[in-house]
Design goal:
There is one protein chain. The chain is an alpha+beta fold. The protein has two domains: 2-102, Peroxidase, domain 1 (Orthogonal Bundle); 106-177, 3-Layer(aba) Sandwich (Glutaredoxin), CATH 3.40.30. It contains eight helices and four strands; from the N terminus they run H-H-H-H-H-H-E-H-E-E-E-H. The chain has helices at residues 2-21, 25-39, 42-49, 55-66, 72-83, 90-105, 120-134, 165-177, and strands spanning 107-114, 137-144, 152-156, 159-162. Strands 2-1-3-4 form a four-stranded mixed β-sheet. Helix 7 (120-134) links the parallel strand 1 and strand 2 (137-144). The model has no long low-confidence stretch (mean pLDDT 86). It comes from Cellvibrio mixtus. Keywords: ATP synthesis, Cell membrane, CF(1), Hydrogen ion transport, Ion transport, Membrane, Transport. It is a peripheral membrane protein.
Length: 178
Amino acid sequence: MAELTTLARPYAKAAFEYAIAVNKLQSWFEALEVSAAVAEQDQVKKALAVSGLSAAQKASVFVQVCGDQLDENQQNFIHTLASNKRLALLPFVKELFAKMKAQQEKTIDVEVTAAFELPVDLINKLAQALSAKLDRKVSVQGSVDKSLLGGVVIHTGDMVIDGSVRGRLAKLAEAMKS
């Protein structure tokens, strides 16, 4: 997967820089979301795998499937990916673009998992505290995991804050073994 991300990075960077230059960051993000979703469809994967189609034909088919969701420049981007045999990288391009967009906008998505449904005011306080700590606008998504005894587990990107009772017990058991 690291190799595919490496291959996708220049395309994501080019799309991001262009989107910033023309002040259409959200429009490009939405277009890449649609394109990535199309690229992940089994029928599209099969159609693009047909070796008898030229790059231009593959791009045209892909753009047709996307419908009017892509403007002319975004369609040109699809044609460039097709001519370089990189249409399959669209999901990776979208992910990298999303990370660059979040960095630009200073936003971050946080997943909070608890043993029970958290009250809205508690989620808002948590969002404010994380926003101050991370110096970003935080968007909190909550979920419930009944297997947690209590506490919460917070996921954001590569960072995990395990404040669950199970996590604390595991740390205690590890400390007792050493």
